[in-house]
Amino acid sequence: MTGFININKRAGVSSAREVAVIKKLTGQPCGHMGTLDPMADGVLPVGIGNACRLFDYFLTKRKVYIATFKFGVDYDTLDTTGTLLCEGGRLPSREEIQKVLPSLTGDVMQVPPAYSAKNVNGRRGYELARSGVEFKLPPKKVSIYDIRLVKRLSDAEYVFRIECGGGTYVRSLCRDMAKSVGTCAAMSALTREASGPFVLSDAVCSETLTKDNIVSRIIPADSLLPFDNINVGGDMQKRLLNGMSVPVDVSDGTYKIYLEDGQFYGLGQSVGCRLKVKTKLC
């Protein structure tokens, strides 16, 4: 049993809890692809078994979020689940916010939140922050492709649609947007609508899964990978499975390898017309 399940995580539960549910139902090692904070809901891809070996192939995929930012307040976690540091800050107009959105898109340097899973000398940032340890996280380059102001909920709260690359912190974007208009803000809600090929409309709530129906919700790993196929058999298959490279008449690149019985074996890398297994799944 291997592949992916596209979970619709509900707000208030951890990503680890969702993984634990799938692990119990499948009896296989499992892992999630991109943590969602407990307050957030939406798409949480969970890999089952050796499919977790494919996570690196999805790291550069685009993600789509619907986020609510509350202006005029500041929290230590950069979202409204943390400790309130101050309130009553200036509330920007819709026009002010629209004006700064272009400056927040593109390849930008972003400082992750202190309350994050970032590793700091062997410890998670949130562990240090909760312990009162002062530290600074270095900025990192992230890609923000598009930010759209969707609607205004109140004088203080606005809803945004954000399309970005992996590693982007929406809470940090909230902080940076507020700074651009001369105030402070915190994220008050977050929904992930898409993560690469995984979309919310196809996601399933873990509460609806059982040992009897979970197999029907597993997405085959090869159906999600945008690579061409190479079919192998006979001596060519034997040599590949023994770790050797074999001659192929294809361009350099990554390929999905299928065995002579039709089984998806994993991914191979072709270099100089020679193919070698790169990621084994079975």
What does this 3D model show about the protein?
This protein has five helices and 18 strands. It has helices at residues 15-26, 94-100, 125-130, 170-180, 234-241; strands at residues 3-9, 30-32, 41-48, 63-71, 74-75, 84-86, 106-110, 119-120, 123-124, 140-152, 157-164, 185-195, 198-199, 228-231, 246-247, 253-258, 264-271, 274-280. Strands 1, 2, 3, 4, 7, 10, 11, 12 and 13 form a nine-stranded mixed sheet that branches. A five-stranded mixed sheet has the order 14-16-17-18-15. It has a two-stranded antiparallel ribbon with strand order 5-6. A hairpin with a 2-residue loop joins strand 12 and strand 13. The relative contact order is 0.18.
Attribute tags:
282 residues, Pseudouridine synthase, Archaeosine Trna-guanine Transglycosylase, Chain: A, domain 4, 16% helix, 18 strands, 5 helices, 9-stranded mixed beta sheet, alpha+beta
CATH architecture of the largest domain: 2-Layer Sandwich
- Would you tell me the overall average pLDDT? 93
Give the end-to-end Cα distance, rounded to a whole number of Å. 10 Å
CATH-derived topology of the largest domain = Pseudouridine synthase
User: What's the number of extended β-strand segments?
Assistant: 18
Tertiary shape:
elongated
CATH superfamily of the largest domain: Pseudouridine synthase
Radius of gyration: 22 Å
Amount of helix: 10-25%
- Series of H and E elements: EHEEEEEHEEEHEEHEEEHEEEE
Report the CATH C-level class of the largest domain. Answer: Alpha Beta
Please tell me the total number of domains.
Answer: 3
